[in-house]
Amino acid sequence: MENLRRLILVVGAALLIPAAAAQGATKDMFAGTPPKGALTGVRGPVADNAFYPKRVTIHRGDRVSFQILGFHNIYLPKKGDAVPELFALDPSNPVSGVKDAAGADFWFNGQPSVGINPGVAAPTGGKSYDGSEAVGSGLPLSGPPKPLKVKFPKKGTYTVLCSLHPGMKGKIVVKGKKAHIPSKKQDRKRISKQTKAAVKLAKKLVAGQGVPSGLTVKAGNDKKGVATIAFFPGQKTVKVGQQVTFTMSNKSTESHNVAFAPEAYAKELAQQFIGPTGLDARTVYPSEPPPAPLVVGGTQHGNGFVNTGLLDDDKATPLPKSAVVSFSKPGTYQYYCIVHGAEMKGSITVTQ
Q1: In terms of residue numbers, what domain contains 65?
Q2: For residue 274, what is the domain's CATH number?
Q3: What is the mean pLDDT of each run of 10 residues along the chain (352 residues)?
Q4: 10, 24, 185, 329: most buried, per Cβ within 10 A?
Q5: What pLDDT, on a 0 to 100 scale, did the predictor assign at position 119?
Q6: Do the domain assignments include residue 118?
Q7: pTM of the model
Q8: Is 155 exposed, middle or buried (0-12, 13-18, 19+ CB in 10 A)?
Q9: 3-class DSSP string for 132-165
Q10: For residues 199 and 42, is the Cβ–Cβ distance under 8 A?
Q11: Does 121 map to a domain?
């Protein structure tokens, strides 16, 4: 009887093998640098907005386990559809009742608010993707998210995106059952090579490679998905009346703004930047109605608040890439990127 029981167990286990194999293999793709989402050995605040590896090749019927490392999401768009924006102008819900530190209404009351697209912010689609319907992880709002495991039943090449960082994308190549594909070991080697290249680039960017001279400040010093969360240069001296251009890096995957304000007010704005219904208009819109100039040095809005509004280098949005600011009197003026928690900051010293 004992031998019969063992035979049944062995046969049962053998029968399970084809069933397990029929489910297909699973490969990993990371949104952010594995294993923890940060580039190690780089001094300075750097975001690596890239998928690792950039390309994953699997067999038809296999799965990809998307591991989200950092503030990213996973979005596989419906074939033929325009890539949806995470944030979009909502004319049906105009800004209202927003006042400055002096209690006066801001000019942008009555302008469209910027709402959150629920189709991107919330999980969408099923556990299988062939391009006929979108699949998304939603935003990582409550701690580290669980991996999003997606089956690819159809041959083809598919693009995976991060809605939070325009330009951040990877490729999933699905081949036939008997096609040769890279092994998981080969994938790990590609990840290692990609990481080393990103670290090398990040060190150069943090050190100021490509920092502009003259009357220009870069909001971030970014390249190939590696984004430095700092202003370059962080301190600059100019004369009264001179104009300073704040500009984004080419093909940056980030958005920034430049707000001259008391530190306490900047931190207050940072805490209120993203709410349950969308973005705070005080950060989204420039502090003065275009084309009015942005001039620092007075008591605008009760506390000297001057804001460029949001900047980016994404052609799909109406946001400008740069903004010009001038200064009306001598002094040292602190400025902040509210988008990045007012931790990203710099200063301008103005002389006669």
Answers
A1: 26-203
A2: 2.60.40.420
A3: 36 40 82 94 94 98 97 95 88 97 98 93 95 95 89 98 94 97 97 98 94 94 96 97 97 97 98 93 98 96 98 93 98 98 98 96
A4: 24
A5: 85
A6: yes
A7: 0.89
A8: middle
A9: CCCEECCCCCCCCCCCEEEECCCCEEEEEECCCC
A10: yes
A11: yes
Cβ burial 309-333 (10 Å sphere, 16+ → b, else e): bbbbbbeeeebbbbbebbbeeeeeb
Domains of the chain: total: 2
Residue with tokens 């400055």: 100
The domain boundary, picked from 203, 228, 259, lies at: 203
Residue type, 332: T
Amino acid identity for residue 198 in this structure? A
Q: Report how far residue 212's alpha carbon sits from residue 313's, in angstroms, rounded to the nearest whole number.
A: 17
Domain identity same for 291 and 327 = yes
- Both 194 and 220 in a single domain? no
Residue 274 lies in a domain: yes
Count Cβ atoms within 10 A of the Cβ of residue 286 and give its class: 0-12 exposed, 13-18 middle, 19 or more buried.
buried
Peptide bond preceding 233 in cis form (omega within 30 of 0): yes
